[in-house]
UniProtKB/TrEMBL annotation:
The keyword NADP does not apply. It is a multi-pass membrane protein. It holds the Pfam family TPT. It comes from Thlaspi arvense (Field penny-cress). The chain crosses the membrane at residues 7-26, 38-63, 102-122, 129-146, 174-192, 213-230, 250-271, 278-299, 305-322. InterPro entries: EmrE-like, Sugar_P_trans_dom, TPT_transporter. Its main location: membrane. This is Sugar phosphate transporter domain-containing protein. It is found in: Membrane. Keywords: Membrane, Transmembrane, Transmembrane helix, Transport. GO terms for cellular component: membrane. Residues 12-146, 169-322 form the Sugar phosphate transporter domain.
Length: 329
């Protein structure tokens, strides 16, 4: 890789990092610190933006050739993926209301563990024993981080309830069981989507590149989320309009956040195209570490040495898992 090619790749990687970390932190700010407690509506905004911007990128700008849906069965498969995708994004956004970004990143790093489990259950595909061994530090790291977070939360709660509320209205929340369950659910759903995508769209006639897949998944996802929003987050549009009258910045936050959500997918595709899927996985591990550091600097959430060691152990496990998978091929 020489000259302009190197700079292009570095630029794309930087843009991918910025988009990923930006949408994560802005989600956290809106759902937790700003107080916009509507994760399903926020996800629907993301999917609507992905629908519109995917159409512009593929149909108008022709960044990639348009691939068509060839059958009703293929559309059913795409709709299934959309439903799982919705579950992962909504659950992830809900978890950000209750947990620090650093902890959600640690749990998210266990995606390879869930992927291996789902792949074995659904395809009876066995990995080499060394690959399974590398998953031990992945899970152990999250257990250490979660236990440390729960332990540090306990003294605050028992000491003084009023102090607890005062502290957490300004800073990061500590361990929250419901948030943890949602975070685990989001991670499992992401892994399930990866396995299902490999199964459902594996034939040559049904393969779609990631940008075309997003073009068809996003509007279906938005349609799935619309009734959920109306039932579970009643009057959210009226509430958002009322918020905008007091603070117009909420509209700009939502627009910018939704646009970033699309650029996460766009830069993901471009980085994969100019590097490789394995390189993307390795870069993703480093991205998680960067996101943790940035979130700590911005949200000032307390992180103990034990919790950080747990996260580092998880990242090391994921790196070893990637290397083991590479050698087994």
């Amino acid at each position: 890789m020489k000259g302009s090619g190197l700079w292009l790749t570095l630029g794309l990687v930087s843009a991918w990092y910025a988009a990923n970390i930006g949408v994560l932190l802005l989600n956290k700010y809106l759902l937790s610190n700003y107080g916009f407690k509507y994760p399903i509506f926020l996800t629907m905004c993301h999917m609507t933006a992905c629908t519109l911007l995917s159409y512009v990128a593929i149909v108008w700008m022709k960044l990639v050739p348009l691939q068509t849906v060839r059958s009703r069965l293929q559309f059913t498969k795409i709709a299934t993926l959309s439903l799982v995708f919705c579950a992962s994004v909504v659950s992830g956004n809900i978890s950000l209301r209750y947990l620090p970004v650093s902890f959600t990143q640690a749990v998210g790093a266990t995606t390879p563990f869930f992927t291996a489990v789902f792949a074995y259950i659904m395809t009876v595909k066995r990995e080499a024993w060394l690959t399974y061994m590398t998953l031990i530090p992945v899970v152990t790291g999250v257990v250490i981080a979660s236990e440390d977070l729960a332990f540090t939360a306990q003294p605050i709660c028992t000491r003084n309830a009023r102090h607890f509320l005062h502290l957490h209205s300004k800073g990061e929340p500590s361990f929250h069981l419901f948030g943890f369950i949602m975070c685990l659910g989001a991670t499992a759903a992401r892994a399930l989507k990866t396995v299902l995508q490999g199964i459902l769209l594996s034939s040559e006639g049904e393969k779609l590149n990631s940008m075309n897949l997003l073009l068809y998944m996003a509007p279906v996802a938005a349609l799935f989320l619309l009734p959920a929003t109306l039932l579970m987050e009643k009057n959210v549009v009226a509430i958002t309009i009322a918020l905008a009258r007091d603070d117009i910045k909420i509209i700009w936050y939502l627009l910018f956040n939704s646009t970033l959500a699309y650029f996460v997918n766009l830069t993901n595709f471009l980085v994969t195209k100019h590097t490789s899927a394995l390189t993307l996985q390795v870069l993703g591990n480093a991205k998680g570490a960067v996101a943790v550091v940035v979130s700590i600097l911005i949200f000032k959430n307390p992180v103990s040495v034990t919790g950080m060691l747990g996260y580092i152990l998880t990242v090391i496990g994921v790196v070893l898992y990637s290397e083991a998978k590479k050698r087994s091929k």
